Amino acid sequence: MESNRPRYCLGLLIMFMVVFSLGIERTANDYILAIVSFTGINIILAVSLNVTNGFAGLFSLGHPAFMAIGGYTTALLTFSMEKKPLFLPDLPQWLIPVHLPFFPALLVGGCFAALVAQIVGISVLRLKGHYLAVATMGFLIIVQVLLNNANSITRGPLGLNGLEEFTNVSWVAGWVVVTIYTCWKIKFSSLGRSMLAVKEDSMAANSLGVDLFYTRNFALTVGAFFAGVAGGLWGHLITAVTPGSFSLIMSFNIIVMVVVGGTGSITGSVTAAIIFTLAIECFRPLEENFGIYGVGEIVISLVLILILIFKPSGMFGTGEPKFVTGKYKQLSPTNGK
Amino acid sequence: MDFGYIAQQLANGLILGSMYALVAIGFSMIYGIVRLINFAHGDIVMIGAFTTLVLMETAGLPFPLVAFFVLLTGCGMGILIERISFRPMRGAPQVTGFIASLGISIMLQNLGILTLSAQPRNFSFPSYMQRILNLGPVSFRVVDVVIILTAFFLMVALIFLVQKTKLGIAMRATAENIDVARLMGIDINKTIMATFAIGSGLAAIAGLMWGGKFGQIDPLMGYVPGLKSFVAAVIGGVGSIPGAILGAFILGLSEVLFVGLLPPIYSSYRDAFVFGVLIIILIAMPNGLLGKDIGDKA
Amino acid sequence: MKKCFITIGLFFMSLPLATPCFSAEPIKIGALYSLTGGMSSIDTPSLRGAELAVKIINKNGGLLDGRMIELISVDAKTDQKAAAIGAKKLLSNGVIAGIGHSDPSFVLPSAPLFQKKGIPFVTSGATLPTLPMMIGDCLFMVPFGDDDQSFAIADYSFKSLGVKNVAIWTDNSMDFTKTLSKFYKQRMTELGAKIVLEDFFMMGDKDFSAQIARLKNVSPQPDAVFISSIPNEAGLTTKQLRENGLTLPIVSGDGFDTELIVTVPGKELANDVYFSTHTYRADPRPEVIQFIADYEKEYGVPPENAFAPLGYDAIALIADAITRAGSATPKALKESLAKTMGFKAVTGEISYTRPSRVPVKGVSIISVKKGEYNVEEIWFPTTK
């Protein structure tokens, strides 16, 4: 690296997160805290999908599926032992005594999602473009159907509820930092450059010795791990998980954040995630005072279309803005195809 | 399970498939020529259905005139959407257009809820369309026959349009290479606008048929047809119109046969099964059933 | 760009400050309904009913010597996340009670937040009988439980329609419909009827031809088909069954309580349909007639479905409890709600006397013959 600026930025980010989360947890009310936590979870989701979609160019619609896997796994692992017989009477014998504290449960959830991503990757990653989009969408729907029907473990469409409210702003802030740091490191490692090369021109990358399959699978797996963790955080924030929550609509929302921020730009994903989560809340008073529900969505989609018209490659393009990278030159072309 | 039962289920699958095909043709046309996954396509279906409702219930126009106006409304919406949002984005990465179409779709849905209310409405076709016909053990309705015939007529007409007419040649050239097409003197803007107009007009007609077949419409009804036509078009192969029809029939048949031929308890696994089959088809044929290799563009 | 967003954001955030002030401190009640997305066709009428109740109470001088009710409505967007955020928003606004939701999957993320703060939450439409047990003593239900409505229609179909063999269709994508079928099956088996076929579909399905073909081929032929669905599929299933020449009785629960079962198939085909529902439709009680007249006057259309009176009742129930308690603190309200006895709601009398705290309410059995709705009987649960 030519500049130390990214390191300073990371330091600043960590300091900011510590001060911010400690400060806000003392001062703000529950509503603000919930919005802040969801913003953080959306940042994790957008940044991690950016590894899959932005770096490696895999058009995946399956992100919520990994969230669901992580969310259900974490929820089952932390489910309170007293409530289990009452809430989940049909739980398989071997699952009854299994119990973990929150942090290890999150990790297990993330790893399980990553493991599933490996298996899925083996089968669908040879597909390209829109074909991959349909295949990952199919994967999402299959996961939803299985969750809907595995009554003894997931309670079907009702989902699991009564989870402990473990997630708070500090937990989310911590994971946001970890996600941004990891994805940043990946982007500027040789592996990250291979990913960008695969995205730009897979044949050329292959002829230069990049293992296409390994690179793509890695990108999918990293994305899935963080999606799984985000699912765990999500479940323990609203204290319930149902199959219906992890829907195609959620997948669209995350993709919108990635594209508006700039496919491939971590700064962009973070900014877009913040703007979109807050914008929806900002429209609530207007909708509630005038009884015109849905106006927020209409205005936001209009703004989205305007952004795409005037800045089709997103707010930050593929790169990171100068104030984060310093004089360091972008290796990737600023406008990917 | 006797022969009559299986025949009836096959017929049901074909009818459902032709319903999907009707929506998928327009989708696939836009997809093939502009390489745009247009998620707002399903919402044009919704607009077509509501236009029909307004024209038939309040204006009381005769049926062929209604169909004509619905077609016009669809064309108009297509041109409007293309002009306002997709034309300025031309040349951007493909996913940009996809996201923009999602934005349009969300906008149309919420506008629909705001102005039309979310309540489903009944939608009644003239009674001669509802009559039941029997062919041996198989029974179906006049409207089903109309849908199948319309789907095939539109397919033939579109293939003729794309293969034989001047506009069609311009469309294919644009799909092949937009810059070269421009150098050859093709008016790209007009060609793409025509594509959107035709595709969206077909979607509006599909909305009319959809409402007529199921008898109930609401502002969120476009989601399912939009999604199914996307899947059908991809299975058939990017931009291949016969492929889209084939994909739609495979989708419709597999949905019905899975529910109809297996024990009922598996019915709730239907979507998982259908998408499982689709993934297997795609893995075996990575460019769809009738598609060409599109190279590395994504 | 960012500046622009912030400006817009600040502008809208400052809007609520501009709401008018009342002389006496208003009583704040929160409403959580999904006004956009898939649930909006069910939830919007509930909110309109609730708003109507508030308007009428305020016009008559409010509660507790002139305190007005202020209904703060938040959109749950058919999304669990929005339901949870919305609940937190209401709670930080200082509401003394919450109402809302017509499906347990949205009650589950929001009601526990009310429970944690000791603030009562009255669900106007969720009928899962285990809800009060899962959430705690702050949850109150306006409707009956799914067990009651299933038992009611099961008793009716066995005793009055003489159904001995029955086919059951279930929407397998919702908890409500699955629970309804489970209780129906349980009661019919107890009564000695035989379930000859169980078939499933998913919410959003439009085409039931595969299920219909199977129903036609099952032997012995069923005397009736029980369809467990929400209103969106009610008209579609009726239409398609009748068009395919099946004339057997169709029985169902309150998901069938909608005009769609007549308008979609047409009056001729909407025949021999029976469903159990909230005592409201075609009911001659004065509360009901008054409610329908008020609703039509306010909105220009008759109530869209049974969820409109349920929303109305949720507010009326709270208002009654506040009046009885003589105080508008959450704690007093909770205690007084729990003691509700024989409250005359539009959808029937409500008493919380069972240990499960599911209200003991009458269930209407309604028949539809050639498009005409008629109340056949009012069923009462035997376990008081």
Written account of the structure:
The complex is a heterotrimer of chains A (337), B (298) and C (384). Chain A is mainly alpha-helical and 337 residues long. Chain A has one domain. Chain A is globular, with a radius of gyration of 20 Å. A two-stranded antiparallel ribbon of chain A has the order 1-2. Chain A has 16 helices and two strands. With 298 residues, chain B is mainly α. Chain B has a domain at 19-225. Helix content of chain B is 73%, strand content 4%. Chain B contains twelve helices and four strands. Chain B has helices at 3-34, 41-59, 63-86, 94-116, 127-130, 142-164, 166-176, 178-183, 188-214, 223-236, 241-261, 270-284; strands at 121-122, 132-135, 138-141, 216-217. In chain B, α6 runs antiparallel to α9 (188-214). Chain B is globular and about 60 Å long. Chain C is of the alpha/beta class. Chain C has 13 helices and 14 strands. Chain C has helices spanning 2-14, 40-59, 80-92, 104-117, 131-135, 146-159, 175-191, 209-217, 231-243, 260-263, 286-299, 307-325, 330-338; strands spanning 27-33, 69-75, 97-100, 121-123, 139-141, 165-171, 194-201, 224-228, 250-252, 273-278, 343-345, 348-350, 363-369, 372-379. Chain C has a seven-stranded mixed sheet, sandwiched between helices. In chain C, β6 (165-171), α7 (175-191) and β7 form a beta-alpha-beta unit. Mean pLDDT of chain C is 89; it is low at 14-22.
